[in-house]
Design brief:
By secondary structure, the chain is of the alpha+beta class. The protein contains five helices and four strands, in the order αααββββαα.
Length: 169
């Protein structure tokens, strides 16, 4: 928990500054930062450092072990009418409940075809926009307009920044 607090201080989190100005100690601040009842009620810009094997807490009851406990919500993959595949929960969840980690690998169309043939699984998800490290989509960076590159792309360019690159996860 202290790592979460120290990182939030380092990046200048406004909530931490406000709490420090009210002379709150680290324990009081930590009670208002991160998980409450195994749910995330506020964004923590620096991320949350969960308890681990070096902690003396009880793995089964620790309220700071959420993501590492895995998926607890029932999830369903479904086909939408106009948007491809989606994921949804089968039951209503309280706000801030951890659902799942959604991650993937980005590669070109050619790499996707090669890997699909090699592994015998040719299902791929086609990305139509990318997010940068600040979590801003290309659309937000360009004032709400996604730019289309009409010029022929250099074949040696495998950069995932182009909508023409046929990149998959």
């Amino acid at each position: 928990w202290l790592r979460t607090l120290k990182y939030a201080e380092l990046i200048g989190d406004e909530r931490i500054k406000a709490m420090k100005s009210k002379h709150k100690n680290d324990a009081e601040i930590l009670n208002n930062l991160g998980y409450r009842f195994r749910r995330l009620h506020k964004n923590v810009p620096g991320g949350i450092y969960e308890c681990n094997s070096r902690c003396s807490c009880n793995k089964q009851t620790c309220s700071n072990r959420v993501v590492q406990n895995g998926i607890i919500a029932q999830l369903q993959l479904f086909k939408t009418v106009a948007r491809g595949w989606g994921v949804r929960t089968l039951h209503d969840l309280p706000i801030g409940t951890f659902i799942s980690i959604y991650s993937g690998e980005i590669f070109t169309s050619e790499q996707a075809d090669e890997r699909g043939k090699l592994l015998g699984d040719e299902y791929q998800a086609d990305l139509d926009f990318f997010e940068n490290i600040n979590n801003d989509s290309e659309e937000e960076q360009n004032g709400g307009i996604l730019e289309q590159d009409d010029e022929e792309e250099d074949e040696s360019d495998t950069s995932p920044s182009s909508s023409e690159s046929g990149t998959f996860i």
